[in-house]
Write a structure and sequence with these properties.
By secondary structure, the chain is α+β, with helices and mostly antiparallel strands. The chain is built from 7 helices and 13 strands. Strands 1, 2, 3, 4, 5, 6, 7, 8, 9, 10, 11, 12 and 13 form a 13-stranded antiparallel beta sheet that branches. The two termini are 38 Å apart. The N terminus is likely disordered.
C-alpha cells in the first residue's frame, strides 16, 4: 500500500550549487518556536536520541546541462491550470489550520484537494534531477528529460548527464509491450544490444534506482505523500515548519518541513521536505533524510527529486511514447 514514499522515507526531493541563505533555526527539543507546529504525544516504541534540528533550508539552483533550455517560466499553461483548479495555495492552507488539530492536517487538506487537480493535467514535460542513496552510498546527481502522460500512464526519459548515462532512453506505456520498459544503452554496446524489453521491477531495470519508472511523476509523489501523512497523523512527536521564501532556480516556493526528532518504530523518516511552486501550485521538489549517524550530527540524505522546466498540457500523442519516433535515438 505504501509503495513509493514508504520505501523512500524508510532510509520519499544537499549538496547542490547554492548561495548561503539563513532561514532561521529549527525548533529545539523543548518549547516550540515561531512558525513551527508541534505535536508531542509519544506513541513510538523504538527509543533513540534527539537529533539536531538546526539543518537549514537553502535556495536550490540547477544550471541547465549543455544544450538544454534555460529554466522555463510557466507561461500560459500555468495560467490555464490555475484558472481551472480552484485550489488554495499551500501557504493559505496552513493559515487555515484548526486549533488542536494535528500539525500535518493543513498540508494534507491541500494535497487531497490538489491530487484531483493534478489528475486533470493531461501531460507535461520537465527536467528531473534526482540524487539517491543506493546500498548506503550517496550517488551523484542525475539529470533526465522526461515526458509524462496520465492517460494511459506513459513515460519517456532521456538521460542528460552524467556523461556515462547521457543519451540512454526508456519508454513505458501502461498496457503496451506487456507492461515492460523499452530501453537502450549507449556507447559501443548500443547497436550490438539494441532495444531491450524489461519488467519495471527487474534487477536490470532497477540497477542504480531506488524505485521503478512506473512510480515517477508529480501525481505519484502527491498520492504517496497523502498516504504517509495520514499514517503520521496517528502519532505525535511531529514538528511541521513552513518556509514561505524558499526558491528553486529562482522560482518562489513554499517549503513544508516535517521532522520526527526521535527515532521510533512508527516513523518512516527523520525529516522530509516538500517544496510547492507558488505559481504552479504543484510539488516540484522532495527531500528525505534519515536520522543522524551520531548524536548532534546532520540528517543523512536518502533521496531528493526536483522537477524543473515544467511545461503542462503539451498535447503528447502515442508517437511521443514510441521508440520509432524519429526524434529519438533508439537503434
Amino acid at each position: 500500500m505504501m509503495r513509493w514514499i514508504v520505501r523512500s522515507l524508510a532510509g520519499p526531493c544537499a549538496a547542490w550549487m547554492a548561495v548561503a541563505w539563513l532561514c532561521g533555526g529549527f525548533a529545539k527539543a523543548g518549547a516550540p518556536e515561531e512558525g513551527v507546529t508541534k505535536s508531542g504525544s509519544n506513541h513510538g516504541q523504538r527509543d533513540g536520541k534527539v537529533a539536531r534540528l538546526d539543518f537549514r533550508v537553502e535556495p536550490v539552483w540547477y544550471p541547465a546541462p549543455p544544450g538544454e533550455e534555460r529554466p522555463a517560466e510557466a507561461g500560459q499553461a500555468v495560467a490555464e491550470v490555475a484558472s481551472t483548479s480552484g485550489r488554495i495555495t499551500m501557504a493559505e492552507a496552513i493559515r487555515r489550520s484548526e486549533p488542536g488539530e494535528h500539525p500535518l492536517m493543513p498540508a494534507l487538506r491541500w494535497a487531497m484537494q490538489g491530487v484531483e487537480s493534478i489528475r486533470r493535467i493531461e501531460d507535461y514535460s520537465c527536467t528531473l534531477v534526482k540524487r539517491e542513496r543506493i546500498d548506503g552510498e550517496l550517488r551523484d546527481h542525475e539529470w533526465m528529460y522526461v515526458k509524462i502522460r496520465h492517460r494511459p500512464f506513459s513515460i519517456y526519459t532521456r538521460f542528460l548527464k552524467p556523461k556515462d548515462l547521457e543519451g540512454r532512453e526508456a519508454i513505458y506505456v501502461e498496457g503496451r509491450n506487456d507492461n515492460k520498459i523499452q530501453a537502450h544503452t549507449t556507447g559501443r554496446l548500443w547497436k550490438l544490444i539494441g532495444t531491450v524489453s524489461l519488467a519495471p521491477t527487474s534487477p536490470i531495470a532497477m540497477k542504480g534506482n531506488r524505485y521503478p519508472i512506473t512510480e515517477m511523476g508529480m501525481l505519484n509523489l502527491t498520492e504517496r505523500l497523502i498516504e504517509v501523512g495520514l499514517q503520521d497523523c496517528q502519532y505525535g512527536e511531529c514538528e511541521v515548519k513552513v518556509i514561505e521564501n524558499a526558491k528553486i532556480n529562482k522560482r518562489p516556493c513554499t517549503c513544508i518541513q516535517v521532522v520526527h526528532p526521535v527515532p521510533r518504530r512508527n516513523f518512516l523518516f527523520h525529516m522530509a521536505r516538500i517544496y510547492v511552486d507558488h505559481e504552479l501550485n504543484l510539488p516540484t521538489r522532495y527531500e528525505a533524510y534519515d536520522w543522524p549517524e551520531e548524536e548532534g550530527g546532520e540528517p543523512v540524505l536518502t533521496e531528493e527529486y526536483t522537477y524543473l522546466n515544467i511545461k503542462i498540457n503539451q498535447g503528447f500523442t502515442d508517437q511521443d511514447f514510441d521508440p520509432k519516433n524519429p526524434e529519438y535515438s533508439y537503434p
